[in-house]
Amino acid sequence: MDRKDQLRNVAFGGAWSEQIAGREELIRAIETLHTAAVRTAGLDVRVDANVNVALWIACKDHPKGDMLRIAWDKGAAIPVTGLRQQELRRVARLIEEAHRGRVR
Question: Domain of life here (predicted)?
Fold first, then answer.
C-alpha cells in the first residue's frame, strides 16, 4: 500500500493528508533531479522517463515552473559533461529553493 492510500484511510483525513502525499512526491522529485544532475555523465537526462516525470512534478505548480524547466532543458543540452553537470546541479538547487516553503 502506498503512502497516498494509507493517508486516505486516516479518520480525520482532509486536506492535510493530501498535502503530505503531495509534499512527499515533490521531495522525491527534487531528489531525483539532484541525483540526475550528479549522474549526467552516464545518463541522458533529456530522455530518462523518471527524470522527465520528476521535472514535471517539480515545475507544474510553481509560478516560475516554465522558466525552471527551460533552464533544466538548456543545461541538459550542454555537450561538455562537466559543464552540463555543473549547470544541472545549479538548476536542481534553484528548483529546490523555489519550493523551500513546501519541502521543509
Answer: Bacteria
Structural domain boundaries enclosing 59: 14-103
CA atoms within 13 A on the CB side of 72: 28
Query: What phi and psi, each to the nearest 5 degrees, are found at residue 47?
Result: -115, 0
- DSSP letter for 68, please: H
Place of cell 550542454: 78
Q: What is the pLDDT of residues 45-103, one digit of tens each?
A: 999 999 999 999 999 989 999 999 999 999 999 999 999 999 999 999 999 999 987 66
- Grid cell locating 37: 544532475
Q: Is residue 25 part of a domain?
A: yes
Instruction: Decide if 98 is inside a domain.
Output: yes
94 in helix, strand or coil? helix
**Which of the 8 DSSP states describes residue 66?**
H
Q: For residue 99, tell me if it sits in a domain.
A: yes
> What's the total number of domains in the chain?
1
